[in-house]
Amino acid sequence: TLKAFEEKLKEWQAQQVAFKGSEAGKASAAKKAEKKEGEEEVPEEKEVAPDEIVDEDVVVELTDEEKALHYRKSAQPDILDQTLSKCFMDFSLPTTEEGFDQVTFEWASQDTAETVVKDWIFAKKMTQRVENVQPGQWFKDAWTEWARTIAGWKRLQAEWKDPNKKKALLAKKAEAKKKEAEEKGEEAPKEDAPMEINADDLQVSSVENVADIGSGEPLFADFTYEDWALLSARYELHVLLHSFKKDVEDPDRQSFSEKDLGFYYQKYTKKNWALRSFAVDTMEKFIDLVKDTVRLAPQTAFLEPLQGEETMPSAFVKLAEEHRRERTRRADAGDESAELKFPRTSGIAAAGAAVAPGSVGRLAPQQPLRAPYGVPNGGGMRPAGYAGVVPGAGTGGFKRPAPPTNTPTSYVAKRPTFGGAWKR
């Protein structure tokens, strides 16, 4: 406390007075007086290391780049990129309207400073990703419709390739035409043999209904795993790029670069983006597979959609069919590079499976693995729908063993009643 400090100070002052009055104090004072009357003490010279010697004749000149800097650049950033991307859009210069009495610009004029800040924010827009972007309603509606549509197309292809289902499919279409004619009051068409149309002779652009080219055959009847994967990639990137512009609502941000594609793709589709799913190792090689749908802008290297916003999903089926026919012609001509072979992974190329926005895939619940009767249960797990067969067991499941043969046949023990008596 202050009182204790004052007491300590008085005690110290008393000790100083006592020391000066003592013999030691007088001797110290006399020694100091002798030094003042004599020559000044010369300090000892310290040895200087060779690397610390500075040549005073050397003139240091700054480069033009160094002269243009108004602050020192640090190797470590003051703020993380992830944090900066969330707030740099709100950066601005101080003004008197904010309550400042005066704003002084020391390094440059106000107009120059405003230009520097504006250019810096624009440059950040070109490199920083939008961390808080969320899929809008337009994307959600398009994505839901796409999931329903592509599932129906795949189901239709499977029915067309199955002879029995194909026959039923044609009969259903004939019945639909008959019913339509009756509703219009026209004469029902005769039940002749189905129209024979060679799909390869048709121009893809002339097909009105991709689910029926006229004979009941869908335009995508010959699609393989690779064709479905590229079809999905086309449409998914198409809606992603158009939706990004809508959701960001920034005229300076019309798209994004390749390095941020994985982030936005997962943000919107809830799926991972991987070039290896298409058996390529660079974005340029992938773009070559879907060059009718997306491209890399020459100036900015940003992804750009080539189809209009309102392009229907059926148009992408036609693009995929044109691409398939082109590869077929090249393969027939001996071009081995025309053949595609994608790995069957669970990524984007996995049959183009669509996931509803905001949903997360769930694994089927696991069920305990039951051991045969009489065998200790090992506590193993088996997936739902497990259809494995234990050696020696039938396909209908496990069978309990027959009861022991030494059980007396004249007397059978039964469970006692509540009264405790046994029944014969």
Account of the 3D structure:
Helix 6 runs antiparallel to helix 8 and helix 8 packs across helix 11. The N and C termini lie far apart (101 Å). This protein is mostly helical. The longest helix has 25 residues. The C terminus is likely disordered. A hairpin with a 6-residue loop joins strand 1 and strand 2. Strands 1-2 form a two-stranded antiparallel ribbon. The chain has a two-stranded antiparallel ribbon with strand order 3-4. It is built from eleven helices and four strands, in the order H-H-H-H-H-H-H-H-H-H-E-E-H-E-E.
Supply the key terms:
424 residues; 4 strands; disordered C terminus; two-stranded antiparallel sheet; mainly alpha
Q: Structural class from helices and strands? A: mainly alpha
For the biggest β-sheet, the strand order reads 1-2
Helix content: 40-55%
Order of helices and strands: HHHHHHHHHHEEHEE
Q: How many strands, which pairing sense, and closed or not: the largest β-sheet?
A: 2 strands, antiparallel
Question: Which regions are unreliable across 5 or more consecutive residues at pLDDT < 50?
Answer: 346-399, 407-414, 416-424
N-end to C-end Cα span: 101 Å
Mean pLDDT over the full residue set: 77
Rg, rounded, reads: 42 Å
Q: Outline, from the CA principal axes?
A: elongated
Strand content: under 5%
**Extended strand count:** 4
> Number of helical segments?
11
